[in-house]
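ERR on first pass: missing label on line 2. Operator R.T. fixed the label and resubmitted. Corrected input:
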Amino acid sequence: MTYEAMDVQENLLRNDAEILEDTVTAFRSGSNMPARKRLYPVSPCDSCAAHKKAICSSLEGQALDRFRTKGRTRIIKVGEPLFFESEDIRYFYTVISGEVRLCNILEDGRRQVVGFRSCGDKVGEHFGGKYLYDAEAVCDTIVCQFPVRELEMQMQQSPEMRAKLMKIMQEEISELQQHTILLGRKTPIEKIATFLKNRASKLNLVGEENIEISLSMGRSDIADYLGLTVETVSRTISKLKAEKVIDVPSAHAVVVRDIQQLAVLADGKK
Amino acid sequence: MTYEAMDVQENLLRNDAEILEDTVTAFRSGSNMPARKRLYPVSPCDSCAAHKKAICSSLEGQALDRFRTKGRTRIIKVGEPLFFESEDIRYFYTVISGEVRLCNILEDGRRQVVGFRSCGDKVGEHFGGKYLYDAEAVCDTIVCQFPVRELEMQMQQSPEMRAKLMKIMQEEISELQQHTILLGRKTPIEKIATFLKNRASKLNLVGEENIEISLSMGRSDIADYLGLTVETVSRTISKLKAEKVIDVPSAHAVVVRDIQQLAVLADGKK
DNA sequence: CAAAAACCATGAAATAGATCAAAAAAAATC
DNA sequence: GATTTTTTTTGATCTATTTCATGGTTTTTG
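pass 2 clean. output:
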């Protein structure tokens, strides 16, 4: 199938599930379609890994179907932007697979990663004029894209969706406040331990031995997230490895060998 | 007037405005009424300095009057808590005068001030089980206190109030993200300059010469807010004074002599 | 209003983390 | 699949900020 044939208009006529399958296959095979072409109808939500956690989970039946047709599935390759801080808000996104970093840049190039977003997480604002950050894929990523006005409309009709969005915003506030403690008062070891612990707990595998965490992002992303330099991140990870708290089979994978000790280190109890 | 006479029940029978006047007078005169007594009916909103900015500004007429009767005006003296992080959420607050610090404490005593709240600002959460932070007065402070369930009820009926709360939450997120850049990537000078610039811009006096800022909080609160030590805060303020960007007539007052230079320093352009 | 306590400013010393440098490993490109 | 480029790791040095210490102010309290 040529990329021309995968144009949105044409895709709208085809079976949704079939299309996403094609999409993902073409994507995985590494074909470098131009960015504007990588936009497809959203396939049904019941088979979607992100749905349960995502904002769309607040809708059901017809309302959900209707909402879904307003969205587009979009593919973003490593390093590509979803949008920039300076842009007017037009869409908001839900991450389906992969991961996105949210960045703020100072004029001299210093960068702060404000957060990472993965499967089921929301990216982007829904009101106010401009986005609050640059959003970029840290690895090949698939997102659902919805026009903000559709969200607004849907929210007027659905108290469930309103409640869900409020809850998401509240969690965002809570997370940012926690991160504030980390940035302002924690040591490098505490920072890295907290970061790894948080990623581990996202996997819902607490209690198990040898929790395997994937670090989709590079060391410099971690550094800019934790307010450190790349060198300090690298050294600190090495230190945790030397202390047998973690294993590091590859730069993008970490195995937590002692989750309790990791938790102890994260809160600076030792 | 005795404190007994100022009991809430009795106060309910009196004229609201009269009561707040008494309240504030008694408060200013430094009388040390027990904390449980410092709770009064809320006087009418039209004469309230905080109302325009506060969440209650989204209500009008009868709805506002009704809501007001559900609240209490409360006085908190320097250093006294409004609530602690460990407490179940029961009330949320609007600051009428004075200022409140929101803190997170690590087990070994390290502290991060997550934010300050002043006239018109909201303090406290409205859902989830526990508060996210300790809230304490940094100077003598007056707040309005509302049960969270009243807010919930009112929100069901008032789309305006829902919208207002969402906007407040969005601003909170935006502010926290900005603070994240400051904590993760800015130098002490940039941090202090940003802090002073932000406080100046809250006063809506931009463009004027010699903007007078009051620092209700102590140096250690500023330090814990900016991720610095008291000593560095003190030294950095002295440096800005030496460079004639600010004057420091007293420890709790700063006069901005060169707001442009302050802005330049805040973003690290120099 | 005087004594005590808390707070603020500043100097000297110590150090944690940054910067600089270079090799090793991994990923991207032709 | 070999070559270039980027990323990661590790070592050595340096410096900005913290820590420690002290004196001067301001604020609190009895």
